[in-house]
Amino acid sequence: MSTSQFSYSSARLRRVEYLQFGVFSPDEVRQMSVTKQIKVNDRIIPDGITRPETFINGQPVIGGIGDPRMGTCDFRARCKTCDCTYSGSGAKVNDCPGHFGHIELARPMFHVGFIKICKQILSCICFHCSKVLVDERDHRFRAAMRQKNGQRRLKMVYEICKNKGMCEYGDESNMEKVQEGWNLGLQGGITNEQAPKDVGHGGCGGRLPKYRQVGISLQVEFPETMEDIPGSGDKKQNLPADKVLSIFKNITDADCIALGFNPRWARPDWLILTLIPVPPPHVRPSVAIDGAARGEDDLTHNLASIVKANLALLNCVKKGEPSHIISQFEQLLQFNLSTFVNNEQPGLPQAQQKSGKPLKTMRQRLRGKEGRIRGNLMGKRVDFSARTVITADPNLAIDQVGVPRSIAMNLTVPERVTPFNMVLMHQLISRGPLEHPGAKYIIREDGNRIDLRYIKSKSELALKCGWIVERHLRDDDYVLFNRQPSLHKMSIMAHRVKVLDWSTFRLNISVTTPYNADFDGDEMNLHVPQSMTARAEAQELMSVHKNIITPQRNAPVMGIVQDSLLGVQKFTKRNIFVEKDLVMNMLMWVYTWDGKVPTPAILLPDKSQAGQYRPIWTGKQIMSTILPNINFIGYCSTHESDQNKKDCDLPFRRKMSPRDTHVIIQNGELLAGIIDKKTIGPGAGGRSHNT
Asked: Which residues are in the RNA polymerase N-terminal domain (predicted)?
């Protein structure tokens, strides 16, 4: 339990209205980065990370992947940016949160997560003038503009534009001018001087190529009628990322909106990588091995490969190497960038360690049951919890849970020492951690913890008011009980503890319905609240008694089930009579019984003794002893509707039923009717719902 205190802030609290996702622009990445150009020992360290080394002689390299300005994973070191330390847990206020760096790429590269979207955008805009291929004259485009969801809008525009063969210039009256001007401009387009102004669509009239994604690259196929083909002149050629970037940069803000983008939060040219953010060492901590050597994280190995390939490509460009050599290093850099995001791409080899084990990169850390989302954020491992198999115990109340004694002696509840509980706390401490109910720890006012396992004379310990005693879990403590999957609010409720022997959680059968639990090996989780606020919320908001009615359909979510339900149904039949000895036995089990035996329904002549009578009671009379003082009128499951009765107008039909299916409870006494699932089961209109 964290004891950190945050400093007071006079900032006005605002209500969070919505959450906006976006893509970092290159300028935002540079502003966020801490690896900016600095001067160290008369040597200028360039902007970004330019060295693949992490440590040299045990010291982090400035400008390297383990740059100390991004933070540190060493408990003895301090961050060069915020001058904070590292505790490993992040619980302290002065912990360094870590800071991002960045790597400036020698050439623009595709982002493997956005390459499919880049292909869709290219199919929607002109290859030459970057204008969207349709406008408001098309009714389908107008329908797409009414779509508020950006992804759906892009998909609708893509379906309209994917079969376009040229960038329309204007109306049909201008098509002859377009045909004449196809071969006048570079790459098959029309120059601005020859184009009429503000007519029709307003495009350049150029022929459009077809695009195809091949692995982590894009291929472009130019039409046969196109004379001036850019690049190598081939009809089919690879489309480099720098060409795509130049096309995307010419897209106007209005066209960005038409393509489903919000220019404030994301633009198409931001989907092309010109630099990459480098996560801080907290995300990829290194481990010291045998003092000098260090074991680096998989992300660090991948980042080192990116820096090496980037430096090699930069040197090739500076030296003026042939284009095929530069292309090979571009492919290597593109491969390392792709595996940094996703190392499980079909048709692409995996980046591996020296041992041959595939690297665990960004996507593998986020996705799946063991990933960051499901494994660390939605499904944390917590303290003060227990898990074991559940078994049935009909002797427990519905708001009780049977806890094994071994678990009760291991889990603790912090209780502050006051003058009112001083004697009780002394008794718990004297028993120690090995006898239940006892205590395990004492926490002083200064935060020091006393472990009672190592204190021999526990009875001589002097307690002070304000100290905290971490005592064993005991009867009637409130705990949270949960069964996964937690699909609705009633999947976790507060129960009162009943410490029992053996090694399983015990549960009343009636409360299994909201948990969707059965006793064929199911396991459930128990959590112990650690503060007075949490205990009060558990008792007042999450108690079983206060969650019987589900807000989903305003009906009881739990009731009598299985053997108990069958017994009640048989017990309340009209022809069931109970002898005196059995009546006395059953009444002794009713903890709310006031000691008064109801008047017998019948005095039956005793055949063995002339003139003697033996009293017998009906099942309805015995059932009335456990009913609260309520009034209820209902029907059992076998009741016929009034529509099927010819004599339903008779007054006695509305009160009595020949088959005893009309349930009448008056002042807590069952007068008529059979109690079954419709009356006391989990469903709307029953006794528990009306009560």
From this structure: 269-572
Tell me: do 374 and 309 sit in the same domain. Answer: yes
Residue type, 329: F
Helix (H, G, I), strand (E, B) or coil at 581: helix
Query: Which residues, including other chains, have CB under 8 Å from residue 189's CB and lie 6 or more apart?
Result: 128, 129, 167, 204, 205, 206
Each residue's pLDDT tens digit, 91-150:
565 788 889 999 999 999 999 999 999 999 999 999 988 999 998 888 999 999 999 999
Checking if the pLDDT of 183 tops 70, the result is no
Largest CA distance in the chain: 129
- Output the 3-class SS for 624-647: HCCCCCCCEEEECCCCCCHHHCCC
Q: Mean pLDDT lowest for which of 59-63, 91-95, 172-176, 363-367?
A: 172-176
| 143 or 628, greater pLDDT | 143
* pLDDT tens-place string over residues 441-457: 999 988 899 999 988 88
> Within 10 Å of residue 307's Cβ, how many Cβ atoms?
22
DSSP 600: P
Residue 637 lies in a domain: yes
Do 312 and 435 have their domain in common? no
Do 345 and 201 lie in one domain? The reply is no
Strands (DSSP E) along 125-268, which ranges? Answer: 210-214, 217-221, 236-239
β-pairing, 492-500 vs 400-404, is parallel
351 contact partners, CB below 8 Å, separation of at least 6: 302, 305, 335, 336, 339, 343, 358, 359, 361
Residues 343 and 459 in one domain: no
The answer to whether 509 and 564 have CB atoms below 8 angstroms apart is yes
Report pLDDT for 415.
95
Dihedral of alpha carbons 442, 443, 446, 449, sign: positive
Where residue 233 falls among pLDDT bands split at 50, 70, 90? low
Taking the C-alpha atoms of residue 44 and residue 38, their distance in angstroms, rounded to an integer, is 6
Is 466 exposed, middle or buried, given 0-12, 13-18 or 19+ CB atoms closer than 10 A?
Answer: exposed
Q: Looking at the 3D structure of the chain, how many domains does it have?
A: 4
Q: Is the pLDDT assigned to residue 211 strictly greater than 60? A: yes
Domain span at residue 616 reads: 562-690
Structure token digits, residue 263: 């220019």
